Amino acid sequence: MTIVIFGGGGDLARRKLLPALYNLHVDGVLPPRIAIVGVGRKPMSDDDYRAFAKAGVEKFSRRPIEAHAWEAFAAALFFVAAEVDGEQALAPLGARLDIVEHERGLNGDRIYYLAIPPTLFAPTVQQLARSRFVPPPEGRIARVIVEKPIGRDLQSARVINDAIAEVFQEPQVYRIDHYLGKETVQNILVMRFANSIFEPLFNQKYVDHVQITVAEEEGVGTRAGYYEQAGALRDMVQNHILQLLAMVAMEPPHSLDADVIRDERLEVLKSLRPIEGEAVDANVVRAQYGPGFILGKAAPGYTEESGVAPASTTETYVALRVCIDNWRWAGVPFFLRTGKRLPKRASEISVHLKEVPPILFNADRSARLDPTILSIRIQPDEGFSLGINSKVPGPHVQIYPVKMDFHYGSTFGGSSPEAYERLLLDVIAGDATLFMRRDAVEAAWQWVMPILDRWAERGRDGLAAYPAGEWGPSEGEALIESTGRRWMAP
Ligand SMILES: NC(=O)c1ccc[n+]([C@@H]2O[C@H](COP(=O)([O-])OP(=O)(O)OC[C@H]3O[C@@H](n4cnc5c(N)ncnc54)[C@H](OP(=O)(O)O)[C@@H]3O)[C@@H](O)[C@H]2O)c1
User: Fold this and answer.
1) Is the pLDDT of residue 110 over 80?
2) What structural domains and CATH numbers belong to the chain?
């Protein structure tokens, strides 16, 4: 297999892709013969590229460099300078790939990774076709991995998807949503469908509501150029959070076949009740962080960050009340929230079961029992816990909420593979289960569009503020508290 990384000298390659490939090599799960070819405009020798990769692996790899393993891995790394949007752009790359593949005894099965700015996704696949890099599907393997973001609205997503579809057939396309590569996210299906205790409860009869929180402690950092065009709804909700919601809410698939699972995830997206017009104001809160404190240290407000327009209306926080109009979830609200500069980095899903009847132990109106809560911790401290009520030892009946807790770290030891390790391995194996199909990407955009349209109409109107280091604006609290519920602190 040859893996061609367009943008092989970029940040994603350095921090994620090359370390992931190195860990797969250490695990001995890469194909025995492989070449990894980075592509970028800035010329680099193969040795320079190996040094670049080594620095990335040293800094970001899950496991440290081991000299022997590194030597074999480095020998498979190459770099070619090429400009994907220039005339005859890929001719030098084609010639070099032929030589490398010949030398390493490879048959030309290739994966093309688009780790380049999204504006180059379409031109690059067009170049791949023009330069005859994509054989007919029945011939050698040619797969393409597409990074996020796929567009910034429904129309631009369709343009990218159309351009890809002209060159690759859908089964050859692997759209990354790295949340789907996380162990705990894959474990949602195992938890639901490999145990008899949870699934019977996952429906409107027993679930009061579901919360999904994806909190980031960091601010916009050096990514203002991208974030100013995106904002929290596009950056987190349209893709990652809706995929988490789909995993929690989907029907049991009839098999583990990639398209069967992806059909079920799509079904959830299609069942989301549209939020349009004034309903956006009532069900969606958007906000921007102002100056505040993170761990006692002063942090600037969003509009004071470098690269951010002083009058920016980009939201750094969004909270939504969402309904799924299907038989299973009718009447069960899903509360979703994400934000930057929140008190800590934590992604968590919590399923809040209905209260027991207000008799026996729950009879005292002034001291109601905590409901049973299943919390799925996606990061950090991956695992899940079940919050239940228990009797405090002693002569009196006193009830105390306790936790049954499962931690990946302490149960399985070591560190879980990074999402990109699993995802790259799946592409090599041709398993698309954890990737976004075109219809799902577009269904998610379709649902998000009326919210974006309403915000565009209202401009700054309705944009709330919160101090950096706090759990969002009071409007975000009111969104859930107005229904008699509260956000659960992750
Ligand atoms: N970094 C992340 O953590 C992250 C997370 C999620 C998604 N992504 C996505 O991953 C992709 C890459 O992001 P990144 O952060 O790695 O960006 P980056 O650091 O700016 O790297 C982009 C790479 O593309 C190459 N490139 C740019 N224009 C080119 C052209 N015309 N021809 C050939 N190569 C070209 C650049 O190399 P030269 O400058 O040498 O040409 C560079 O290696 C983007 O789509 C981004 O949205 C990144």
Assistant:
1) yes
2) 2-147 (3.40.50.720), 180-413+437-481 (3.30.360.10)
